[in-house]
Design goal:
CATH topology of the largest domain: Pdz3 Domain
Shape: rod-shaped
Oligomer: single chain
Subunit structure: Interacts with PSMC3. Part of a transient complex (modulator) containing PSMD9, PSMC6 and PSMC3 formed during the assembly of the 26S proteasome.
Protein name: 26S proteasome non-ATPase regulatory subunit 9
Low-confidence stretches: none
Structural class: alpha+beta
Family: Belongs to the proteasome subunit p27 family.
Order of helices and strands: HEHEEHEEE
GO cellular component, one term: proteasome complex
Number of helices: 3
CATH class of the largest domain: Mainly Beta
Organism: Fulmarus glacialis (Northern fulmar)
Length: about 140
């Protein structure tokens, strides 16, 4: 009978509706959990960033620093053997640069919240100095 079919249809639609509600509720919980995990990961990455001791405030185009990919506002974490633990002043960096002329130095910087490794080879070029960039100490 048509009335019986209508009741079956209503019951079936109710089941479908409940199943959809459950599905969306689970999806919402999963999304919230994913967001929480992403946030926790971002926080742990921020805490694992090493401390910078100096900052690049100028890079001359065509210089060894520019060719190596060093950029203005890069915060220096490691410059060859110099790091936050043994850095006293810019003379430390100058000494490393002079002793490394023509040999690649490993430089680690923090750029827009990420750790970036740069291979920098101090050498004579058209401009002054062996790098062609200006580095200033960070006041902490």
């Amino acid at each position: 009978s048509p009335a019986g079919l209508q009741n079956d249809h209503k019951a079936l639609m109710k089941q479908v509706e409940e199943a959809l509600h459950q599905l969306h509720a689970r999806e919402k919980e999963k999304h919230a959990k994913d967001e929480a995990e992403a946030l926790a990961e971002a926080m742990s990455q921020n805490q694992s960033l090493p401390q910078a001791f100096a900052k690049v405030n100028a890079v001359t185009p065509g210089s060894p620093a520019s060719i190596s990919g060093l950029q203005v506002d890069d915060e220096i974490v490691e410059f060859g053997s110099v790091n936050i633990n043994n850095f006293q002043n810019l003379q430390n960096i100058a000494t490393v640069v002079q002793h490394s002329e023509g040999r690649p130095l490993s430089v680690t910087v923090i750029r827009s919240g990420k750790k970036v490794h740069v291979g920098l080879t101090p050498k004579r070029w058209a401009g002054k100095g062996l790098l062609g960039c200006n580095i200033i100490p960070l006041q902490r």
